[in-house]
Design goal:
Elements (H helix, E strand, L loop, with lengths): L3 H4 L4 H9 L7 H14 L2 H16 L16 H36 L11 H4 L4 H4 L3 H31 L14 H19 L4 H27 L2 H4 L6 H24 L1
Helix pairs in contact: 3-10, 3-12, 4-8, 8-9, 10-12
Amino acid sequence: YIVVLAVANVEWGPVLKHTFVPDVQFNSTYLGLLVAVLGTTLSPYLFFWQTAHRVEDMEAEPIGGSAAVPLDRRRPKRAAAKLRHARFDVFVGMGLSNVVMFAIIVATASTLGKDGSAQIDSAAEAAKALEPIAGKMASTLFAAGFIGTGFLAVPVLAASASVGLAGLFNKPWGFSNEPRRAPTFYILVAVGTVGGTVFSLVGVNPIRLLVISAIVNGLAAAPFLIAIMLISGDASIMGHRRNGRLASTLGWLTVAVMVAAALAMFISR
């Protein structure tokens, strides 16, 4: 999609203008898609998976046996290095994901959405956005990317919900555990994976389902973010690692945007 931007005759003037000064439309369709975009950017699963992954990563380290050793119990240099690694991971991951998302939006708008009448109801139709670089192989290229993304995303998405539910019931979780040690977690992963597969086989419009799930994510993300901001800014919980002024400002601004978008979507209906 990034390559498509170079060959799709993108009108960069309007793109850059509306990137920084959005042309907000107060109707249910626009606001619903806005909430969906926010929901795919800050999906609730990130809060579970990122935390779970970080804990499992720390548990796998040679220090501390099978338990994760908090940063305050590590040597200052090692703790600082661990924190830098975590920050680099988050910033690079979120940065790249947003660059790719921007490329997908602009490339699709500059190809399929050129005349404003495109209706995408299937993955095959979405693949046409790649025709400027792939030609007749666009569907094949899209399918390969779709399958690869599925192998990456399905375990993460299914495991994220499973981590939350297993943790809620105080059951062992994580792929670092064998199935016999965390049966609840693996059963939930299987149910989520099979359930998603069934949806794709019973004739449900996959694009509509993706949009609906993204909207649900956008609505659910706001209360999760509020809880995270309250915890991360509480000195009695976080100590000297609580959020600084910049992080607090950006975090609460994000909360305000997501809450405002969700309320506007409901009001517009």
